[in-house]
Amino acid sequence: MNENEKIPIPSLHRLSAYLRQLEIFSIRNISHASSRPLAKYSKVGDATVRRDLALFGKFGRRGVGYEVNDLIETLRRILGTQQQWGVVLIGAGALGMALMRYSGFTQRGFKILAAFDTNPYMIGTTVEDVQIYSLDDLESVINKTAARIAILATPSQYAQKITNRLTTAGIEGILDFATSSLEVPSQTHVTYVDITAHLEELSFQIGGNNP
Amino acid sequence: MNENEKIPIPSLHRLSAYLRQLEIFSIRNISHASSRPLAKYSKVGDATVRRDLALFGKFGRRGVGYEVNDLIETLRRILGTQQQWGVVLIGAGALGMALMRYSGFTQRGFKILAAFDTNPYMIGTTVEDVQIYSLDDLESVINKTAARIAILATPSQYAQKITNRLTTAGIEGILDFATSSLEVPSQTHVTYVDITAHLEELSFQIGGNNP
DNA sequence: GTATGTGAAGTTATTCACAGCG
DNA sequence: CGCTGTGAATAACTTCACATAC
Q: Taking CB atoms and an 8 Å cut-off, how many pairs form between chains A and B?
């Protein structure tokens, strides 16, 4: 309801989960969904779904639920993905390639505008219409493309130096696949994808149940 | 301290973060670390680091801090990654390729023993010593290799059916890159990596600061 | 009848603050 | 004196439960 209220991070992540689920409902031509089915896929109660949405407004109808396509639009507006975000990808190795080949980003509001690498055999080539530039051209290409988000898919040891260049060049958000924590100016946002940490979570949980 | 106490998931994830940081300290030959530097890289206070570790025991020395290599060993024992876990990879597309080529898993206790795909041109080939099998052979290879963890890197629409086969075949933990939520037996553990959700988090945070 | 939106209650997680040990 | 380990306090998050609207 109050747009300026502070949003709990767990709520924010669940909004993405609701959106994924709603997109599936939409494809199946399901026109309405109540909080119960939306909750089912997020390991929370239905009250939490309603509470999460209530952080931003009243979108449901009592006795009916939420209109699927409306709520999709609303969530995209909340998350800011009704507009298309320009993204640059640093590192065109195996992971970078996988990201360029994944078409889901574009559908969801994120367009990879350019990729960068230091491998001279790659520079100048394109992958899925994404041109690979020399890392030397990082600043100029960011400037030209007006990209605001960067995905870091480089070896960890280069991550901090590249991050410094990215923030100086005006990048406002960084998604980091490297495992070391980055230092950034306070106005820059960073989020981490640590696949190993997820595997460790599984290892712990499996181990704990097998004493 | 109490091994059977329930561990908060956020604490568990931070243990992985501490471990990453300690591995870096170890490489730099830093022998001791106090809770402060470990906290610095996890956006929490130093008391939280001590609290997280206290869930499992007393590992520090007052006035000194924690012995880096000892704590690495302790965290690996807690997380269960002193042993090597056998992992199967479902889907040898761009993402699966990237995962096979990433050497960090093996160093951290996770060994990809086999990969599966439906593409006949890939079946029978190997990538980084990992053999790619037909999806038809899923059960027999899981049985032969005794893998306990699976990584799902297939298109979303196949994820649930494959998951059913995985759990029947005895897989105990699943790391899912697909975006739809999986139904699994209660004893099976699942964790999700949703890259789009991370980008949406950035979009929200950048948008919120630029009204 | 059904399902939202929300005060109140309950639960879980984090931080404070300091005694106590090296 | 520095830093851990932890009881007590605080903050954050989730769920309950129900009045309210369709």
A: 198
